[in-house]
Fold:
Amino acid sequence: MYKCPACNSIYEEKTNFCAACGAGLAKSDDDLFAGHITKSIVFYLVFIAYIVIYYVIYLNTETSLTNEIILEGIFALIILVFCALEYKKILSLFKLPKLPWYIILLCLCFPIFSSIIVHISMAEVNLLLLDVETENLYLPYQEFSNSKIWAILFVAIVPGIFEELGFRGYLFSQLLNITSARVTILVTAFLFAIMHFSLISIVWIFPFGVLLGYLRNKYNTLLLGMFIHFLHNLLVLSYDILSYENDIDITSFL
Amino acid sequence: MDDMNTCSNCSNTIEQSALFCNNCGFPENGTSQEKTKYHANKVMKKNKHFDADKKVKSARTTLYVIAGITLLTGFFYYAMEQDIALLVVNIVLSIIYGILGYWSSSKPLAALLSALLLFVTIIVINAIVDLTTIYQGIIMKIIVLSYLGKGLYSAKAAQDQMQAPVEE
Structure:
């Protein structure tokens, strides 16, 4: 049962206008559109604001495990609040559909391929353009006890789960309401690329995001994206651990 | 079916006693004055949509202008400080703005949302490197953001208009 807020007439079904007073009862398409746009913008701005705060704290204080845990915890919390607003949609994306064998193969092989490309190209680009050595991902964590577990948690697991929840979960569902799947995949991949704050990285993060968006849309699941994202980050991290601890550069095997 | 009527505006079946059509809001049993008002409102809404097309066009022009300014800034700093990294970044950025501007004629929503958030991200990155850059050209930044924002929120109306058959 629905009630007209202007004249209190009661209707059995949802209608666009009240038959007694002419008041509009359904939200117009234009209002809904503006709502989804605003939600997408707010999500992205909150995300950026968090990254800025993280950078400022990271640059101005000694690295400590407590700081790191608090900051990553806040990040996870922010994403969970957004997801809670759309919990029905997001929860429905936690299922593993039947996958053809080549998709499973892709999920396993693509991260190996992408992580090697990133590992090599980042070192080259930084040296060529900025004339600096690429920062070792493992370096900030090596002084903690159980350093490898913390590094894996903060570099591979947290981004893998929560960046996927945010971009392929919340943002993707918002945009899917107002535009086609193809455009949604492109826009989320673009925003995913530029929020990494490195314009050079767009070259590989954008296609990476397109693949994750494609899988999210085709199989209606976040799990594939989370797995690929996790494995990619884990591999990039492990090359850095290898070079830090054993002075082995994986590029020498190629 | 005796007590049912057809809306003369949208042909929806409505109750005879209903003052308004529950589908399109037309005052079927209202005075002629009310009916005139309904049509006037509809025309006004259409004009708003006409305006939407203009707003998207202004946003597109803004994007081309930013693309040009970004490119010039890159070359300017290169001439001043021989900073090749900054030049490459500015050329890439300029190309992205250009592509988004071009894309905004067929997919205004996607292109303008991407452009707006890219513009904000660049401001933020510059501010991290040097906080004072926020105030540099702040009026221009606000103007750019407002043009892009207006274009973005008009994107749906503009797209509807693009797809609608041309009425004489």
About this structure: Residues 112 and 152 of chain B are 5 Å apart (CA to CA). Chain B is about 70% helix and 5% strand. The first strand of chain B starts at residue 4 and ends at 6.
